[in-house]
Amino acid sequence: MGVVAEVERKLARQRCRQDDETELRTSTMTHVVWAPPRWLPRAKRVLAGLAERHPARTIFLVPLPGRGAGVEADATVHDFAIGGGREVLSEVIELRLRGEAARHPASIVLPLLISDLPAFCRWRGMPDWDGQALHEIVDVCDRLVVDSNEWQGLPGAYPELARLFDRIAVSDLAWRRGLGWRVALAERWPGIRRVERVTVEGPRADALLLAGWLRSRLRRDVTLSRRTGSAIGAVRLDGDPVSPPAQPALSGSDLLSAELDTLMRDRIYEAAARAAVSRTPG
Amino acid sequence: MANPLAQGLGVRRQPDPCVLVVYGASGDLTKRKLIPALYSLAFRGLLPERFAVVGVARTEQPTRRFVSSMRQAVKQFSRDPFRTDVFESLAAGMRYVATDFSDDAGEDTVGEVLDELDASRGTGGNRLHYLAVPPQAFPVVVREIGERREREGWARVIIEKPFGHDLVSARELSATVKRWFHEDELFRIDHYLGKETVQNLLALRFANGIFEPIWNRQFVDHVQITVAESIGIEGRAGYYERAGVIRDIFQNHLLQLLALTAMEPPIDFSADAVRNEKVKVLRAMHTPGPKSIVRGQYGRGWIEGEPVAAYREEAGADPRSLTDTYIAAKLFVDNWRWADTPFYVRAGKRLARRETTIAIQFKRAPHPPFEAIAGDGLRPNVLLIHVQPDEGVSLAIGAKVPGAGMSIRTVHMDFLYGGAFREGVPEAYERLILDAMLGDATLFTREDEVEEQWKLVDAIVGAWGRDQPTFPDYAAGSWGPARADELLHRDGRSWRRH
Q1: CA gyration radius for chain B?
Q2: Is A16's Cβ below 8 Å from some Cβ in B?
Q3: pTM of the predicted model as reported, rounded to 2 decimal places
Q4: Residue B100: how many CA atoms within 13 Å on its side-chain side?
Q5: Residues 134-173, chain A: which have Cβ within 8 Å of B?
Q6: How many whole angstroms separate alpha carbon B357 and alpha carbon B254?
Q7: In this structure, how many other beta carbons lie within 10 angstroms of the beta carbon of residue B309?
Q8: Phi, psi of B265, deg, nearest 5
């Protein structure tokens, strides 16, 4: 029996064990997670806080480069309580892609996608931009969700990401995290239109995207100064502090959940990512 | 005469005592499907008490070895747990005859074994002959059976697909068979028709008031039927080189699924009423032009993390073969219900996954007030009938995302057939063998259906003789050639995403 048949059989068996109610699976998407081993525990924690909001089939792809080729699979059906005695059924498949199989994830993802529904891929860590695996995933999914804050080599990686914009809709959790600050800055219109320097205390990716956004929307050079921080804690425009947004910081699950509600291409983000490299301090 | 005592007892009609004679009994079909199906019928007490099985094949072996290999087959392939008492009751009536099908002496031996079974097991001269042999052997076997037909009891013949190679050969085969058997004694098997979901398609359409009023050109935008296999030709290059996907799948399974989807309600569920309606659909289909047909052949690729060879690299395949392993077509059923509604069909080997589905895509809501905010999230309603591997029905509907605002998403509700009823889903062959024993031909194809199917195939294949395709044109593990996508893109549509 092939891996796909084995997975489907395991899931069918587990669904039948639930209760004597008519079996009805409800799904809104297939959620693919590219998770190298060191990212896997974190990816699973995020899933736990996510599933009740997005009934989905989740497929963890765990690349294990090396010799040979092969796929090992685990498949489970999870019940997520949503209150009132109700539950959401979610299917979780973990595929360990050994050797050459790690370069051909589409050959195992395609047969497991839920028909007719969008497929999102959360790519953990820095992609190999020229790697076969990334390009296969881009061809079979509708949306690629990254967190550029997980990457080395910023801002140089943004032009690499931009090469994918015409092939797949892209979301960046670093961009989503800065939403509250972008709202706060937008409220400064029209005074903000001649700003020359933005100072951000926060993660590198979040700061670069905020500056890129100002450059692309205002169509002017804006210099970025940055101080290290785990989240954006302060923003100054030409030395003038901006009031922090009222919204509390979102968890990893909240951030991803928000991106999974979005289906269309985000052209404002794309422009911000492209402009993130325009004028940056060394 | 039907048993008046059985009325009101809630007991299924029992078949008459009979002998099932399987020609080609040493083959894969017998081992994987037929004997496990008989075991499952025995497991549920659905076989007649006086029943026997005779295996006939060229392989030299005694009955005891045949029984032993069938025991292994049941253990390996049956959907039911192995029970010695059930198998032994079946094995007690098992016999094996080694013979070349054209050998008169061998056929006489078969006759002697059948006589012995009539005497020892009381099977009353009733015979169900199952032809699980290569198509070229059909005429010989049918002649041998026909010439030895008993005066007592009934005789029926089950013939596996393909029934002929084209219209001419199908008619020749029919003429041969009809020298000895009437149409109502012939059971041309298309095992897809025995699948629960295919029958459930009829239940869905004709037992639910909500679907039939919208099952027409006014509400349906188009229909997509997919018969996809991820396996290759599995060592059958000799057969496949001559058949291709058009004769292997398109001519039978695919056109039958289309006929069941498009047919008018039959007046009842009798064999002729259902088949009359199917044949009307097949007659109403006009031959598609060359631009409405795409054929392809797989090259190397990856499936489930494993590299796989190109078709031309398969053992026994011509290295320059132009055999089709993929077909996509746009078909029309020219009648009142379906005029101008395209039926996009496709079938292929080495596709991304094994899947047989019928998708009814309804027209979009005429003026969705949410269009601007819904974006790509709101797709047309699709009723998806899964034939295999998971039999069931899915409905894609637009639903509001909980929370503020008016965000709409498509939600997929899957009704998994096996999960709703605690009873396991029977294998197609169980149903079909039992129906043939009962003489019920509803789920078998009739001569005129087969001929209509061949007419369409002949017209398509005739046009292929004039072109020189560039093969291979799709990678194993993909969803087929790019030209198949273009077939729908030209109409502003796309294949369902998988």
Answers
A1: 24
A2: yes
A3: 0.83
A4: 3
A5: 142
A6: 10
A7: 16
A8: -60, 130
- Alpha carbons B475 and B149: distance in angstroms, whole number: 51
- Dihedral pair phi/psi, residue A164, rounded to 5°: -90, -10
Strand ranges, E, within A18-162: 24-27, 29-34, 56-64, 69-83, 86-99, 119-123, 143-146
**Residue B191 bears catalytic tag:** no
Residues of A in contact with B304 (CB under 8 A): 2-4, 71, 107-108, 111
Q: Which of B179, B192, B181 is nearest to B158 (CA)?
A: B181
Neighbours of B99 (CB within 10 A): 19
pLDDT of residue A16: 66
pLDDT at residue A10 is higher than 60: yes
Q: Which of B129, B165, B191, B253 is catalytic?
A: B253
The reported pLDDT for the residue numbered B422 is 47
**Which residues of chain B fall below pLDDT 50?**
422
Burial B249-286 (b: 16+ CB within 10 A, else e): bbbbbbbbbbbbbbbeebeeeebeebbbbbbbbbbbbe
CA distance B225 to B345: 5
What does the block give as tokens for B202? 């009829």
Cβ-nearest to B389 among A8, A15, A16? A8
Give the three-state DSSP class for B273.
helix
Chain A CA closest to residue B403: A53
Cis peptide before A244 (omega within 30 of 0): no
Contact B305 A116 (CB under 8 A): no
Tell me the two tokens of residue B226. 């997919």
Q: What is the DSSP string of B134-198?
A: -GGGHHHHHHHHHHT--SSS-EEEEEPSP--SSHHHHHHHHHHHHTT--GGGEEE--GGGGSHHH
- Rounded CA-CA distance A182/A186 in Å is 6
- 3-state class (DSSP) for residue A41: helix
Q: What is the pLDDT of residue B317?
A: 95
Smallest Cα distance from A10 to chain B, Å: 12
Q: Give contacts of B354 with chain A, Cβ < 8 Å.
A: 4-5, 111
